[in-house]
Design goal:
about 350 residues; 4-stranded mixed beta sheet; 9 helices
Amino acid sequence: MKRLLNTLFVTTSESYLAKEGETVVVRAEGKTKLRVPIHNLEGIVALGRIGASPDLMELCGERGVGLSFLTETGRFKARIKGPVSGNVLLRRAHYRLADDPSGAAGVARAVITSKTANCRQVLLRAARDHPNKDAAQSLKEAAKQMEQILLRLGPEDPLDALRGHEGEAARAYFGVFAHLITIQEFSFDGRNRRPPLDPVNAMLSFLYSVLAHDVTSALEGVGLDPAVGFLHRDRPGRPGLALDLMEELRPILVDRVVLTLINRRQVSAQGFTKTETGAVIMDDETRKTVIAAYQNRKQDEIRHPFLEERVGFGLVPHLQARLMARFIRGDLDGYPAFIWR
């Protein structure tokens, strides 16, 4: 079983990452702020104006530690990685399956089923203990609508039909997302991004970008190409397969973290500012709080529904990547997408 290693998040602007022996060193304001042994890391995420030495980039490439550069709002800028790993035969099988409309639809159906079921669970759990009866009823009605969508996912549906069902489920979910927020200080009028226009969307978009880093690293670790997806069409610069696997995990690894932060008053509306372009961004302290909550969520243990083993949530992207590789190699009859219980 793979160990759950740490992701190093560097958020202080103008910091510089360097290598000292087998250690990653973070320097800021002319001082060394942190030293972390490379063998304790599975990834490094640099947010904002962060620099890195060529020696450190080389070390990360050699050790398979993903080094990603994001803007302060979480928008992806660049990623440093080492030589491509994995069996070329696995990648060729991956490409053939993605080019087969029936095969791609089969994987997309599993992903959409998982995403819809997981979103439905989020709504039902919130409805159980919701202090407002009308809001709880709206959540139950949306969950019922999503149940009907799950029943309509036919085994022979083409990709376009499946994408239509996925879009309908997403509209139902985000249509009642505001009812999941019980603190009046925050509001949600719908999903928006590029840029996010309110604090809730700012946190969602930021953590979706962080999750994309984790899933991309997991796929590269088993030798799959993160760019070639089944549900998401090919687009230059877009990690289609990473986005596919993210769909299963976004409701439970990101959405619940954001909702917990808000409803437990761990973040405040005062921790966000609106720029001249209308984009809403987090201040440094809020960003650190959000990152810490996400990292803590990854430490929580759950029972994997397919493997029937207790694992840390942070290992789920790696396990799903391995299951995807096993399916593509022909070791499994279908891809067992992650369904939260």
